[in-house]
């Protein structure tokens, strides 16, 4: 049982007890029955009025709760519709008081959400307006509903964030372009002369409208200034190149060049003017020194002839080179020819450098070939001979490979140019073949000369005999006079068989390296006919330097065949 029910029963018991106590008092007092009835009616009336008032108050409370519930439900429905959320529904059976409380709480929550959304919408609209004014873009179009939905707010937030990023990007772009524009204007010594240029250079950066149109106009202005700057730089570079060329032709001292060059760096208007004045001064000086200038140009022309492998016929074709009437017209003809050859060389530089590389390799190869045929190369020290042989072998492999590469390049060049590539007046491959043929003939000629020389030497030795020179050896005791005399005697006895003898080194006679038959077909005399070993026979044993070649003895001083 509920406490309220227990309390109600206690109230009934208390009321009954009170009535019993009243009747007892009335009995004790002796109040008549009619008065007791009146008094009882008064008690009944008071109690009934009190209870009626209490019931009425509770009924009024119930009515207020019901009305509040109805109002809250209606407002809650409207808020749910405005906030784009699902309508509120109570779960299970609840009392009127709890329902009213829940509805009232939900309404307050919905009101708060509505207020927050409207405040955020207002803030986003203010930011959007500010950014759109800076970027010159249209405002964000949002639904005209009083309260935006969560999705609408999310989209609006993303849009504002995008605008903010766009603003930062364009601002960075604007600042960078502005900096370059200011540098170009300073370089060109240009003063802003339009309202747009003044807005860019002079006004506050935050006040500049960062529209796409303005950014495009900024880029266009920068391109124009950079083009003017590039033109100025090109003109100045051309003037500097012209000055450098005139310096070289006029052979201006380095000290004077350095003084002028230090004051002519950059491409500003004053620098350009100074460069032009220097060109005019040098041109006047050139006219005063025409012969000297033309001779310098001819040296330069000769260098390009060499680089382009011009033949003598091609060089003689330029008749002004040999003229001696030093006039302005002759100078112009030489200048034009130098420019033509320079452009021709630069256009085919890779091919000419390849031919030059072959020429250098060929000269090095011929140098190695010459050293290889030099007998004195065997007296070298430090291993140079081995290094040269390795380099010569390497060149023998790389030269044909380089020729094949050049042949492929020349074929492509001839197809593109529709003419023949010549080196020193002939086709390159014919030129290479001619060089190889000349090298072969030279080797053949040298070989024949050596053979002829050896033949003459052999004939001389067969006729007169050889005279070897034996160097002194360390650790050997000098021969005694007696042994020398004995050796001379033995050598003389052996030499009587030969028809021709000659004394060498104090009468000592040696046999010719190539033995000949003695006259009348007799056998040569033996060196040991006496049965004893001669000094010469004894010396052949310990001296390892004397080697027997083709049946004859050669000393270290003999020239090998």
Automatic annotation (TrEMBL):
Q: Which domain of life is it from?
A: Eukaryota
Name-wise, this protein is Protein regulator of cytokinesis 1 isoform X4
Q: Which organism is it from?
A: Castor canadensis
Q: Which gene encodes it?
A: Prc1
């Amino acid at each position: 049982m509920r406490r309220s029910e227990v309390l109600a029963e206690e109230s009934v018991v208390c009321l009954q007890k009170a009535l019993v106590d009243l009747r007892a008092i009335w009995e004790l007092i002796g109040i008549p029955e009619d008065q007791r009835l009146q008094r009882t009616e008064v008690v009944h009336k008071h109690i009934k009025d009190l209870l009626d008032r209490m019931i009425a108050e509770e009924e009024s409370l119930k009515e207020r709760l019901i009305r509040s519930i109805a109002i809250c439900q209606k407002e809650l429905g409207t808020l749910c519709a405005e906030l784009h959320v699902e309508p509120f529904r109570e779960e299970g059976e609840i009392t009127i008081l709890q329902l009213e409380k829940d509805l009232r709480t939900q309404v307050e929550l919905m009101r708060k959400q509505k207020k927050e959304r409207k405040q955020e919408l207002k803030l986003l609209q203010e930011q959007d307006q500010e950014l759109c004014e800076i970027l010159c873009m249209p405002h964000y179009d949002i639904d005209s509903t009083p309260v935006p939905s969560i999705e609408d707010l999310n989209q609006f937030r993303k849009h504002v964030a995008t605008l903010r990023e766009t603003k930062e990007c364009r601002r960075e772009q604007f600042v960078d372009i502005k900096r370059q524009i200011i540098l170009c204007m300073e370089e060109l010594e240009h003063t802003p002369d339009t309202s747009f240029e003044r807005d860019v250079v002079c006004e506050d950066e935050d006040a500049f409208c960062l529209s796409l149109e303005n950014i495009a106009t900024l880029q266009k202005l920068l391109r124009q200034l950079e083009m003017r700057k590039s033109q100025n730089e090109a003109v100045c570079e051309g003037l500097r190149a012209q000055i450098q060329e005139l310096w070289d032709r006029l052979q201006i001292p380095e000290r004077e060049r350095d003084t002028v060059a230090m004051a002519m760096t950059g491409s500003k208007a004053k620098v350009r003017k100074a460069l032009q004045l220097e060109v005019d001064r040098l041109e006047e000086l050139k006219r005063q020194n025409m012969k000297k200038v033309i001779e310098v140009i001819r040296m330069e022309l000769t260098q390009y002839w060499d680089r382009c492998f011009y033949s003598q016929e091609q060089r003689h074709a330029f008749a002004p080179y040999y003229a001696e009437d030093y006039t302005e017209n002759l100078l112009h003809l030489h200048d034009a020819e130098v420019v033509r050859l320079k452009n021709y060389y630069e256009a085919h530089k890779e091919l000419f450098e390849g031919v030059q590389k072959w020429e250098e390799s060929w000269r090095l190869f011929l140098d190695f070939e010459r050293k290889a045929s030099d007998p004195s190369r065997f007296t070298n020290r430090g291993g140079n001979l081995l290094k040269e042989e390795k380099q010569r072998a390497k060149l023998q492999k790389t030269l044909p490979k380089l020729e094949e590469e050049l042949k492929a390049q020349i074929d492509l060049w001839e197809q593109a140019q529709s003419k023949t590539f010549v080196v020193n007046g002939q086709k390159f491959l014919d030129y290479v073949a001619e060089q190889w043929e000349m090298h072969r003939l030279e080797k053949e000629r040298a070989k024949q000369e050596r053979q002829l020389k050896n033949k003459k030497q052999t004939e001389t030795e067969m006729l007169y005999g050889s005279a070897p020179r034996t160097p002194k050896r360390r650790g050997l005791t000098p021969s005694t006079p007696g042994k020398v005399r004995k050796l001379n005697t033995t050598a003389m006895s052996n030499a009587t068989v030969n028809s021709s003898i000659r004394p060498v080194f104090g009468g000592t006679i040696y046999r010719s390296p190539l033995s000949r038959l003695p006259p009348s077909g007799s056998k040569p005399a033996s060196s040991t006919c006496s049965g004893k070993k001669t000094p010469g026979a004894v010396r052949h044993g310990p001296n390892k330097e004397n080697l027997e070649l083709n049946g004859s003895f050669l000393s270290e001083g003999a020239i090998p065949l």
